[in-house]
Design brief:
six-stranded mixed sheet; four-stranded antiparallel sheet; 10 helices; alpha/beta
Length: 265
């Protein structure tokens, strides 16, 4: 299977702390890969390094054979045109209409005629179930609809890869499920590679072809959803089942932890 992204011994430090401490894994063409882990495990930092918003101190991040870690800014900007990004907070411009938000990358990165852009915007909004919403402003639509607009914008340039940062954040379970099914549907229809950063286990197991779990800046598990579900690693087991007791339980017993919050009850 063709590898579109190769992450090789990536190390990223903040001061003396290695937030990413030797990350290695590959992402295959056409798959949906979920990167998961608890708060502070390094998953958001890893995403920022992959898309070129940060540079690691060591290691390589190869996207279509080009190293995002060492490429000059102009080359990195060219590589970025091959992928889309769905930000955690949608990151829509409130001063622009829904249609103008989706059209923005087309106006910035192409020389297409205005009428062609309008047609493309209409098609992309139709793909996410928002036909006829072009003229509304982001503040006039719901949180779930904003996510769908942001997704339409992310696929505006027909990217080969789409990155998703906590796509279900701030959404109710039903709306989050709608977004998950959109991710799966668009990945298949448009033959895209999808990379999803999340800590939501229902979402992760619903959409993933493969999963990578981070803990303290390292990869501690990698495989299919079934591989992860059956993992004997105690950290993996604790995380996917949401258990307080385990190797990461604040280094206290549950009773001591609760006593520290509520006192004697």
């Amino acid at each position: 299977m063709k590898q579109v992204i190769q992450i090789q011994n990536v190390i990223k430090r903040f001061g003396d702390r290695a937030v990413l401490n030797g990350i290695n894994f590959n992402i295959h063409e056409g798959e949906t890969l979920v990167i998961m882990g608890g708060s502070g495990c390094g998953k958001s930092t890893l995403l920022r390094n992959i898309i070129g918003l940060m540079r690691p101190e060591e290691g390589r991040i190869m996207i279509f054979g080009k190293d995002m870690a060492s490429a000059p800014d102009e080359e990195r900007n060219q590589i970025r045109k091959s992928f889309g990004m769905l930000f955690q907070g949608s990151a829509l411009f409130n001063s622009l209409t829904v249609g103008e938000n989706v059209a923005l990358p087309l106006k910035e990165h192409t020389q297409l005629d205005e009428q062609i852009i309008k047609i493309i915007v209409k098609v992309k909004l139709e793909l996410v179930g928002l036909t006829g919403f072009e003229g509304l402003k982001p503040y006039e639509i719901s949180g779930g609809m904003k996510k769908r607009v942001a997704l339409a914008r992310a696929i505006a340039l027909d990217p080969k890869i789409v990155f998703y940062d906590e796509p279900g954040a701030g959404l109710d379970p039903i709306t989050a499920s709608v977004i998950d099914h959109l991710i799966m549907d668009l990945s298949k229809k448009l033959k895209m590679t999808s990379v999803v950063v999340t800590h939501e286990m229902k979402s992760a197991f619903r959409i993933a072809d493969r999963m990578v779990m981070l803990h303290q800046g390292r990869v501690i598990a990698e495989g299919t959803a079934e591989d992860i579900r059956n993992s004997t690693n105690p950290y993996v087991h604790q995380f996917i089942h949401g258990e307080m007791d385990g190797p990461d339980h604040f280094q206290k017993t549950r009773d001591d932890y609760l006593k520290g919050i509520f006192g004697n009850v």
